[in-house]
Design a protein that fits this description.
alpha/beta; elongated; 9 helices; three-stranded parallel β-sheet
Length: 187
């Protein structure tokens, strides 16, 4: 089954933080996702077409105990650490497919690229991208939703050209309409 057909089924998107949320919202608003808007599951607590809820048991209780008219629900996790664990209990394992898409090291790399400082960042030892943005670029609110919403007028795809994914790591570009074999594994 190809990736577009998979996403025609009910799909819950989990965004780890503010940066992931903003990027997802922008991509959705611009029609750049292969996930049809009408297949996205709304978070009943926020009304958004994604959730910030990340705990597996909370996801089961809030989202998987509902019937969506399909035998299977897709869970798309957009996170920055490939090591974050997410395990559904046996009751829900056959009812959901989990896709983990990483933005490692951090989406803040996009801000560094946008500011023309990628090369400078690569030469700084042991500084997280968010710290570099705050200390070297003066982007003190880089982790705040309101700032990010204003800062990004469109979602930049240069990240996938500058980052090398490892060991079958999956990337955010996999759910883009224009996805081109930049990631190591297809959905």
């Amino acid at each position: 089954m190809d990736s577009q057909a998979i996403y025609n089924q009910p799909t819950l998107v989990i965004c780890e933080g503010s940066a992931e949320s903003v990027i997802f919202e922008l991509l959705l608003a611009e029609g750049k996702l292969i996930i049809p808007k009408d297949s996205l599951i709304e978070d009943p607590q926020t009304g958004r077409l994604y959730t910030r809820c990340r705990k597996d048991r909370d996801i089961e209780e809030r989202f998987l105990s509902v019937t969506y008219g399909s035998s299977c629900v897709n869970i798309v996790r957009i996170i920055d650490s490939p090591n974050e664990r997410f395990h559904l209990s046996p009751l829900y394992q056959s009812k959901a497919r989990v896709f983990t898409l990483t933005t490692r090291p951090e989406i803040e790399i996009l801000a560094i690229i946008k500011e023309g400082a990628y090369r400078a960042w690569t030469h700084v030892n042991n500084m997280k991208p968010s710290e570099f943005c705050k200390e070297k670029l003066g982007l003190r609110k880089i982790k705040q939703y309101a700032f990010l919403r204003q800062y990004w007028n469109d979602a930049d795809e240069q990240y996938r050209r500058n980052h090398h994914f490892q060991n079958h790591e999956r990337c955010l570009a996999e759910i883009l309409v224009d996805y081109s074999d930049s990631c190591t594994e297809q959905v």
